[in-house]
Amino acid sequence: MKATQYVLEATGIPIGWEHIKIADEAMAEPGRPLPLDTVRRLRAVDRSIKAPLIVNKLQGRICCIQGDGALETYPSLNNAIRRELGVLSTHGDQRLFARL
């Protein structure tokens, strides 16, 4: 992630970085890989960059707490991130960088 930040900062475009805990980093405090606070913070930012997440295959489903306290279950952490934020995978789609 640091290399990505370095390259983007080299463009001269002013970027305000905000580190948001997710996966193992988030597990240390609230005890869930995708806590509600993380989802809320990700929804609040204009843009985000997702670094690679190490996910053990067949680790199992994850549960995310919703705003009303209900639990939503997803097959994987990456799937949960996409569905909670309402985004699709854009691997290889260079049109995202058209405005840089």
Question: How is this structure best summarized?
Answer:
With 100 residues, the chain is an alpha+beta fold. It has helices at 2-9, 24-27, 36-44, 77-85; strands spanning 62-65, 71-74.
**What count of structural domains?**
1
The residue ranges in which pLDDT falls below 50 over 5 or more consecutive positions are none
Q: What is the 3D form?
A: globular
Helix and strand string, N-terminal first?
A: HHHEEH
Query: Structural class, please?
Result: alpha+beta
Strand order of the largest sheet: 1-2
| Fraction of residues in helix | 25-40%
> How many helical elements?
4
Q: Roughly how many Å is the radius of gyration? A: 15 Å
Number of strands: 2
Major sheet description:
2 strands, antiparallel
Describe the structure.
With 100 residues, the protein is α+β, with helices and mostly antiparallel strands. It has one domain (21-97). Helix content is 30%, strand content 8%. It has four helices and two strands. A hairpin with a 5-residue loop joins strand 1 and strand 2 (71-74). The radius of gyration is 15 Å and the shape is globular.
Primary descriptors:
two-stranded antiparallel ribbon; 8% strand; 100 residues; 4 helices; alpha+beta; single chain
Helices, strands, pairings?
Elements: H1 2-9, H2 24-27, H3 36-44, E1 62-65, E2 71-74, H4 77-85
Antiparallel strand pairs: 1-2
